[in-house]
Design a protein that fits this description.
By secondary structure, this protein is an alpha/beta fold. The protein has five helices and five strands; from the N terminus they run E-H-H-E-H-E-H-E-E-H. It has a five-stranded parallel beta sheet with strand order 2-1-3-4-5, sandwiched between helices.
Length: 140
Amino acid sequence: MKLLILNGPNLNLLGKREVDIYGHQTFESYFAQLQKNYPNVELHYFQSNSEGELIDKLHQVGFSYQGVIFNAGAYTHTSIALSDAIAAISSPVIEVHISNIYKRESYRHHSYLSPVCTGSIAGFGLYSYNLAIEAFQKKT
């Protein structure tokens, strides 16, 4: 199984930004743990602060990978373009959030991505990514 973990804006600062919400661990070190924990899954990782680059990556892998785990960050709440990109591809997408977006500011309670995603996982810290991988494994 080939999965892409796709992270959006500001997630390159994990371990440094708002550690009370996002924790002290960098995503790169967490990704290395995921690769060790799921040796039978071919995991790929891409992060960008640019909406266009995220769309390009969805187009690039969205017809050949078995799934995409997507934390679009703040674009979740603003990007119709990302929603359209997800709807346009055949690979299933699971929306992931590290924090519980429903316990945060009200503008974070709406997702443009959820309606076109297979499912959404939020509020379990970095473990949200594990849950998404396990969901993909159970579907196959």
